[in-house]
Structure of histidine kinase:
Amino acid sequence: MTLSPAAVAGIATILAAWLVAAVVATLYGLRRAAAARGATAEAERLTLLLRDAPAIPLRVAADGRLDAPARLGDWLGLRKLPLYLVDLGGADEGLPLDEAVALAEDVRTAQRSARPFQRTLHPQGGKRVLVVRGRPAGTGRAGEILLWVFDDTDSRREIELLSAETERLGQAVAAISSLIEAAPFPMWHRGPDLRLALVNGAYVAAVEGRDGADVVTRGLELVEGQAGRGPLAAAAEARAQDRVLRRTVPATIAGARRMVRITDVPLGPGGVAGYAVDVEELEEARADLNRFARTQRDLLDRLSAGVAQFAADRSLVFYNHPFLRMFALQPEWLADRPEFDRVLDRMREAQRAPESRDFPRWRMERRGWFTAPDAVEENWLLPGGSHYRLLAQPLPDGGLLLIFEDRTEQLQLASARDTLLRVRTATFDNLFEAVGVFAADGRLHLWNNRFKDVWGLADVELAQSPRVDALVESVARRLANPSRAGLIRELVRIATIERQQRSGRVEFTDGRHFEFAAVPLPDGNALFTMLDITASRGIEAALRERAEALEQADLLKTAFVANMSYELRVPLTSISGFAEMLGGGYAGVLGDTAKDYVAAILSSVARLSALIENILDLTQSEAGSLPLAAETVDLGALVADGGKQARAAAKAVGLDLAVEIVPPLGTVTGDPRRLRQVIDHLLHNAVRFTPGGGSGGERGRVLFRATREGDTVEIVISDNGPGIARDRQAQLFDRFRTGAGTAAPRNGRDTPGPGLPLTRRLVEAHGGTIVLASEPGEGTTVIVRLPADPL
């Protein structure tokens, strides 16, 4: 069939239109298929997201029907999800009934008001906590509510833990705050700007503020600012270095100046905390300790013992001069603080350490002194014979103190003492005296052989140290008078208790006599000695008889001298009378030679009469029968008259007599004749025994001087004669011995005679004193002092 071109064109157009429509449909289908595949993939992705999401969606229809994934049943503890919301609660599974009812009420309220809500659920049979957030679903369906159920178990657990931790930290902060507030020393906190942000009560009291807010507001600092080292600068340095800084500075605490130790503690971005501790007493204690250490070292340096101190690192830190001397060490070497081992080595090199076969081991043992629990004491015998006593004292700081005492001399003295003790014991045992030592309790402590023999005691008995009471009872039978034994006990008691010395005598039954004494000893004991005086008693009796015989002979001699003096006066008077008659020419005119003889006879008779008179007066004075008048005597006139009479005699022999009377002399009470006799005797002797040429070739001179001092008159008679030997001066005032030791008179026959002894008797009878001073070749001085009447 033939188609027209128009038909063909129409068919072609239709076919082309179908083809285009087919292509468009195919393209659209392909695009829809692609969109479907995308939607499927998105649905699968969203399904995966919903399955792995931390929340489960729950859709509640208007009639309460539920639409939710099955895993919501696991969260709720249900074996199978119910169809309606109200069936979520049960008696033993699912939600508690009250929570299920409350959730249903929340859903109904949201359906009516379209308001979202949130509720926490606690499924039964577990510890899971669920949070439900509900709101309208937004699907356009009236009354449909979409609930999102979140598992808040872990979050709640973390919240509870964080809440507990927060509470604990709060309590700790409160406790720390209370502790800081109650701290007795100032504490503070600086904020990031290093300004004060918090202070405690001690800080407020220290800076005398009203309260903490006032102190923070005013910025009252505890420590005054110093050059480049104020409190803010110190806090900034601590924060910059991120370490705790401490410094000791002065501060005014409650108006008092104190030393405090400031500690700044950096807290990172939170600022800087600080506190101040009062170290005033600590600083004072440290200063006292330093002073004590210096004083101790000064004291150790003054000790005679050698001292060396080592530190904890065993280096030498101190030594004194005796240590240097004892071990021959050099100060320069010790100044380098050598170690303990080196010091021992140097001691060994100087032969000032004990000899040891194994010196390293010996040194190692001494090194253990540093850790010894107690002090160690040793004795060092050195090669040179020196002996040291060593005390090693460990110190609390780990050091060691060594003290060396040189006991060489002490041991030598101890050896000498032992020798002396042995000698004393031997001497004690061989004494002629009986000696016993009684202790303070009355027991016999020590005795010698003589003591044992005298009392007839056995060694066994003495070895028991008998008491003095038992000893007295034992020895009483050996005494002639047994009752005298109690005296021994009493003397021992007085010597040991009253510390007094007593003595006495006893007679034994065998006729022996003993003199005993009890002497207190310094140690509290008593020394009892007995001396056999049997022989001396016989000698004493013989001497006593001889003394009595001598006294009788002296009395007879005195009586004989007195009688002879009286008997000699009669012939002397006759001689004197006849010589005067011859001289007067009664027997005829005498020649010149005869006259000289008569003059010599008269002179000798005068001298002999004076001598007999003096002897008679001396004898009477010794017998106490010399008569003395008690008159008021003018000493000035008496002395002047005596000097006048002696001047003529001195001029006759070529002497110078100087008389010095210093008024007023006043008066004395006494016998004027006897006082004149004293002056005449002394002047007469001075003139007689002073050569005309004097001593040493100068002219003879006699000084007669009288002065008064207070209530005493002093009469001085001095010459420049030959003097008197010292060993014979005392004999001048003895009876019948005055010629011995005196210088020879000019005529070689005169002697002082009894004038000086009589002069002494007369001066003493008037209450005065007489003193003689002489040196051979320098003359003699006699001084008479008499008590004078008041002026």
Notes: The CA atoms of residues 547 and 553 lie 10 Å apart. The first strand starts at residue 55 and ends at 60. The domain at 538-627 is CATH 1.10.287 (Helix Hairpins). The two ends are 216 Å apart (CA to CA).
